[in-house]
Structure formats: structure tokens, C-alpha cells
Design brief:
549 residues, alpha+beta, GROEL, domain 1, GROEL, domain 2, GroEL, seven-stranded mixed β-sheet, three-stranded antiparallel β-sheet, 16 helices, 23 strands
């Protein structure tokens, strides 16, 4: 990179071989790379979207149509493309669903901006127009949103079904949706008019083997541990549960100490005293009335024997997160000293049993009274199937939680995007100036969602968009693309609904990413940003995506 001085002498400010791209090329390349990411997931959108098979160098395979999973697994190197992947990650973290929508929208916004750049509209004007359109879009969405409460069980189930439609879980959609709703409602807490949901209280375990229909909600906790002694009963009814954060072992001395034994009887006395201490520990547990023990630390072999004799079911080295979840589910108090263990510290479960699932022994704590933590056991025929069912369930659970936390929902099938696009075009006339062009471009970009739904279902996108616009002009704000009947339908009437938060978050993150990419007019290698040095010569590619940008 060189600049000419007044005397025509070039001044070099970057080392030889360093990479720099000029403004117009940089913008085009960035937009092309970001759009390539969007195109990679575009065919997965909607009920008739296709799946992707991702393979790595060692032969591992992932089959999915979950947007964020596809983008996370792909080897993407281009810096602008990575920014679009961040859109998907943010959407997944904030809402859990709608990742494909957010990425496609970001790609469409950049495609529309390219046409404006060709008309010599300055990138900052486009970014300013997009910002105005984003704020107006969020306003419009709030106006058309419909309320949603904890009591709307059927509506919540339809939210979950919509989330899973098009995924492998769809065949058992009704069953899985009910589990997702019951699980989220069980852990939901009301704070005034607000619903607070901590998804850490909903534990999901996946095990291959069995069918998807065997997926179940446990009103309690699944602990990935088995009982410590084969002499213990594998099934305990009316379980009184003690949670101990202390070792049932003889502590070693703090300082290095030697015990000198000069007589065999002394050794016998020493062993007996250790036995007695362990027996006393077990006596304290039995005296509290506990018949089930979950210990966060170790349990000595001798203590295991005494626990078995007392008829107490015990599991050791249980994870702290599981102990905390057990406390919330059973109402038990975690005790750090056995001397403090009392009857009032015990929790209750109707049944504690050790069961083999997929060849591994697990402990199920079931039938808790009003548990504040629950578990879902996800089953599927093969490893790949169970992984995809797990992702679908995760989306459904987060989708229901997002709907309840905000308390509003919108119709699906591209209906809210079509309505917002219609209103934005009216708003653009009020904006005036060159920003008006960007607001109209934003409206066009929003229609990529119904357009893609139509394309993925094998319909004519132009016919569908014309009909969709006509319905919205007539005031039918819930009209959307019904890919099952290959027509435009009232999406609310056919129970295709989504949480408001999916749409607001997708518009926010897609718009902000597009604005940021538009503002970049130079790509320069900066060796100090990472240990690996600067970029390679020429524009970095996108690994695993093919094509040139």
C-alpha cells in the first residue's frame, strides 16, 4: 500500500505482501460473502425445507436443518461471513429459534443495499435508512402482536408445533409439543404480570435407542448415576431424599502424621474405630428418616455396605448442577455437615428408580410434588435421529419460553413480514430524501421470508407474493403462505403461530449486522489482531462453501 508525495515519491505504510482491498471491491466482496452464508441455509426454511448433511475430515456426520447448527459446523473463514454467523448465534442465544430467518433476512438486506450502492447512494445513508426501518418495524410488530398467557396451553402447544414443523421431530410433533409446553409451564414463575422462566431448571437428556414416541417428561430429575451398591433396592417408593455436600469417608489428617502400631490388637482397634465413624455417619442419615441419598462427594466402600444394610438407596459424585436441580425439584435442603441433617431437610419424590436407558444405568427421581425443576428424556432410533430430535425439542422449549416471557405472539408463514413490509412502504413516503430508498429496500428484504417459503415448497414466488400483498392490502394481517395447501391462508386460523420475540430479535440482529457490513469500506490485514499473523494474500475465502467472492 503506497501513497504518492508531492514529488511523486511513493510512501509505503504497509509491509510488502500485506493485504488491502479498495472501497468498492471491499463492499462487494463483503456483501457477496454474507449473502453466500444466507444462501447456504436458505433451502432449510419452512415446513418443506430440506436438510443438510455436514461431514468433517474424520468422517463424523451431522444431519440437520437447524440454521445455527449448520453455520456453527461449517468452516467459515471470511470476516464478513463470520458476522452473519454471529447473527444466527445471537438469535439462538436470545430466542432459541428463528436462526434461519435472521440469517436470510441479513442476506436480503445486503442484496437490496447492493442495488442502492449501484445508484451511488452512500452506505451511511443506506445504514441510516435501515435504522429508521428497523425501529418502525418493531413498532408495527408490537401493534399486530396477539397476547399470550400461561393458561393458553393449546396456543402454547401450537407455538411448539410450528417451531418443530419441517424438522425430523415433526412426525411426533403433537406428543413432543405437549412435553415441551408442560416442561416450560412447570418451571415458570410469576412475578407480578411478568412470567420468568429459567431454562437451567429444565434438564434435557438424550439417549439413542427406542422410538421418538418414548420421549418423556419426568416431573423430577434424571441423574446420570447408578446406585453405589448392588445390595440396594433399585426402586424406592415414597422417597425421602437427603442431599449431602460432604464425603462419607474418613478424612485424612491435615498434616503429615504417622501412626505407630506395635501390637496387632492396636491395628484391629484402629480399623474398628474407622468402621465405627462410618457407621455413625450412616446412623445419622438413617435417623433423619432418609431412604434415598445423593452425595456430591465420595462414599467409602464400608459406608456403602452400611447404607445397603439400612435399606438406603445412594448415589455418589453427583454433579453440583444435578444436586441443585434435585433441591428445586424435591424441596430438599442441601446439607454440608451430617451433624446438621434433620427430617425437615429431606425432599420428597413419589418414586426413585435406577433404570437402564440405551445400555446405561440412570437414576430417575419421579413424581415430585410441584417440582421447580423438571427433566425431558429425548429418545430416537439412531444417534443422528436423537441428535436432531434433541435440537428440535430445544427449539420448541425455547420458543414456548420466549412466547411466555414477552407475552405476545404473531402469525407465522411470512404473515408478519408481509404486513410490516406493507406498512414500511407507507412510512417511506413520510421519510423522504434518500433514506426513503433504504426504507423501501428494507421492506423488499422482509418479503424474502414468504418468497423463500414459497420457493422451498415448489410454488411460484411471484404469484404467491402478489396474492399475499393483495390480502394484506385488504386488511387481513394474519394472511401467510400455507405451504401444505399451496396457497395463501389465515395463519392464525390454521394455528401457525410464533413468539413475537423471534421476529423482533431477527429484525434487530439482521439489520444491525447489515448496517455494520455496509459501513466497511476497507479490509486491511492486521497481524496484531491474532497470533496467526495477517490474512493470506488475496481475499480470504469461506472454507467449505465453494465459489469465489
Amino acid at each position: 500500500m503506497a501513497n504518492q508525495t508531492g514529488q511523486g515519491q511513493p510512501i509505503f505504510i504497509l509491509p510488502e505482501g500485506a493485504f488491502k482491498d479498495n472501497r468498492r471491491t471491499a463492499q462487494r466482496q463483503n456483501i457477496a460473502a454474507a449473502r453466500a452464508v444466507a444462501d447456504a441455509v436458505r433451502s432449510t426454511l419452512g415446513p418443506k425445507g430440506m436438510d443438510k448433511m455436514l461431514t468433517d475430515s474424520i468422517g463424523d456426520v451431522v444431519i440437520t436443518n437447524d440454521g445455527v447448527t449448520i453455520l456453527e459446523e461449517m468452516e467459515i473463514e471470511h470476516p464478513a461471513a463470520k458476522m452473519v454467523v454471529e447473527v444466527a448465534k445471537t438469535q439462538n442465544k436470545e430466542v432459541g429459534d428463528g436462526t434461519t430467518t435472521a440469517v436470510i433476512l441479513a442476506g436480503a438486506l445486503l442484496k437490496e443495499s447492493e442495488a442502492l450502492l449501484d445508484q451511488n447512494v452512500h452506505p451511511t445513508i443506506i445504514a441510516a435508512g435501515y435504522k429508521l426501518a428497523k425501529n418502525k418495524s418493531l413498532e408495527i410488530l408490537k401493534k399486530i402482536a396477539m397476547p399470550l398467557t400461561l393458561n393458553d396451553k393449546e396456543v402454547l402447544k401450537n407455538l411448539a408445533i410450528t417451531s418443530m414443523t419441517g424438522k425430523s421431530a415433526e412426525s411426533a410433533g403433537e406428543h413432543l409439543a405437549k412435553i415441551a409446553v408442560d416442561g416450560v409451564v412447570a418451571i415458570a414463575e410469576k412475578n407480578g404480570n411478568k412470567v420468568i422462566i429459567n431454562l437451567d431448571n429444565l434438564k434435557m437428556e438424550k439417549k439413542a435407542g427406542g422410538s421418538t414416541d418414548e420421549t418423556e417428561l419426568i416431573k423430577g430429575i434424571i441423574v446420570d448415576k447408578e446406585r453405589v451398591h448392588s445390595g440396594m433396592a433399585s426402586r424406592v417408593k415414597d422417597a425421602k431424599i437427603a442431599l449431602i455436600d460432604a464425603a462419607l469417608e474418613i478424612k485424612e489428617t491435615e498434616t503429615d502424621a504417622q501412626i505407630r502400631i506395635t501390637d496387632p490388637s492396636q491395628l484391629q482397634a484402629f480399623v474398628e474405630s474407622e468402621e465405627k465413624m462410618l457407621k455413625t455417619m450412616v446412623e445419622k442419615i438413617a435417623a433423619s428418616g432418609a431412604n434415598v441419598l445423593f452425595c456430591q462427594k465420595g462414599i467409602d466402600d464400608m459406608a456403602q455396605h452400611f447404607l445397603s444394610k439400612k435399606g438406603i438407596f445412594a448415589a455418589r459424585r453427583v454433579k453440583k448442577s444435578d444436586i441443585d436441580a434435585l433441591a428445586r425439584a424435591t424441596g430438599a435442603r442441601i446439607v454440608t455437615s451430617l451433624d446438621d441433617l434433620e427430617k425437615s431437610d429431606l425432599g420428597y419424590a413419589g418414586l426413585v428408580e435406577e433404570t437402564k436407558v440405551g445400555g446405561e444405568a440412570m437414576t430417575f427421581v419421579r413424581e415430585c410434588k410441584e417440582p421447580k425443576a423438571v427433566s425431558i428424556l429425548v429418545r430416537g432410533g439412531t444417534e443422528h435421529v436423537v441428535e436432531e430430535i434433541y435440537r428440535a425439542m430445544d427449539d420448541a422449549v425455547k420458543c414456548v419460553a420466549a412466547g411466555l416471557e414477552v407475552g405476545f405472539m404473531v402469525a407465522g408463514g411470512g404473515a408478519p413480514e408481509a404486513e410490516v413490509a406493507k406498512e414500511l412502504r407507507r412510512y417511506a413516503d413520510q421519510v423522504g430524501g434518500r433514506e426513503q430508498l433504504a426504507v423501501n429496500a428494507f421492506a423488499n428484504a422482509l418479503e424474502v421470508i414468504p418468497r423463500t417459503l414459497a420457493e422451498n415448497a415448489g410454488l411460484d414466488p411471484i404469484d404467491i407474493l402478489v396474492e399475499l400483498r393483495a390480502r394484506h392490502e385488504k386488511g387481513i394481517i394474519t394472511a401467510g403462505v400455507d405451504v401444505m395447501k399451496n396457497t395463501i391462508s389465515d395463519m392464525k386460523a390454521i394455528n401457525v403461530i410464533e413468539p413475537l420475540k423471534i421476529k423482533t430479535q431477527a429484525i434487530k440482529s439482521a439489520s444491525e449486522a447489515a448496517e455494520m457490513i455496509l459501513r466497511i469500506d476497507d479490509v486491511i490485514s492486521a497481524s496484531k489482531l491474532s497470533k496467526g499473523g495477517g490474512m493470506p494474500e488475496g481475499m480470504p475465502g469461506m472454507g467449505g462453501m465453494g465459489g469465489e467472492y
